[in-house]
Amino acid sequence: MSVPAYLLDLLVCPDCRAPLGEAGATLTCSQCGRQFAVADGVPELLPAELAAGTPPDPAWQTWAGALDRLLEWRRRTWNGGETSQMYQRVVRGVQAEFVAHCQLARARGTLLDVGCGSADITAALGPECRYVGVDPLPLPSPGGPPMVRGVGERLPFREAAFDLVLTLETLDHCQSPPGTLAEILRVLKPGGALCVEQYVTAPGWRERLGRWWRGPSAPGRPAPADSPKVTLLDVPDLLTLLRPAFAEVVVGRATQGSHVFVAARGKRHGGSGT
Ligand SMILES: C[S@@+](CC[C@H](N)C(=O)[O-])C[C@H]1O[C@@H](n2cnc3c(N)ncnc32)[C@H](O)[C@@H]1O
Ligand SMILES: [Zn+2]
Known about the structure:
This protein is 27% helix and 26% strand. The chain has one domain: Rossmann fold (3-Layer(aba) Sandwich). The protein is built from 7 helices and 13 strands. Strands 7-6-5-8-9-13-12 form a 7-stranded mixed sheet. Strand 12 (246-253) and strand 13 (259-267) form a beta hairpin. The model has no long low-confidence stretch (mean pLDDT 91). It is α/β, with parallel strands linked by helices. It binds S-adenosylmethionine (SAM) and zinc ion. The site of zinc ion (ZN) has 8 residues, from loops.
């Protein structure tokens, strides 16, 4: 079997949310019949409109452009050179503080990492949790943790599947941070928790930006056109997103100040599923 049974049990079709069955090397939706490839052990579960060519929706086109720039940035900088080693030291330092802040070494149950990249965070997780990563550009390693190709806005997992959801440095890369949060709420168990690690812009930009601020219905502001991000977020944006969704939201700052950690518990609703 190419997909572990416990993973198959969590998966749903990203288009119609029906369970998937495995037939040979592909997965098939039990409702709409769409077939999904499994490449290097990674089920390819992008929604249909993102799986083939240019997406029809302009907002998703903007996202796809940013994702291309992220890929290019990775090629240029994560190449083992001096700059990449410097970045990795920063990332490792922030991740270590995040793990301590959210007590992830003691995490239990089934855990989803939204925007997992190469799933580096697994090195810090305790043995009591079962990890699944999802990313539109997953970087699997042989024998590494299970990953799925997909997007946060249309998570290919069934409702209430996860005890804990993590998302590190990812909300600002998503096409829609509120859409991703709605999906996280859908797949989170009622007693589950969300831990966010996020690069944030300095306070005061709202005042400087004046009328360009999108306002609370769409937290954040558009990233510059040449950026690998889609949205720039600050701490009030994160609170605007998370406070209506969770009873308890605790914010901590990394020592270097540009990254924050948010632990959120007690979800108030199941997500709109948009
Ligand atoms: C800066 S990287 C962070 C990777 C990893 N979490 C880490 O901390 O090393 C941002 C990740 O978000 C992913 N991403 C971009 N758009 C996404 C979306 N709509 N849903 C989920 N992940 C997305 C990218 O492919 C990328 O792997
Ligand atoms: Zn389907």
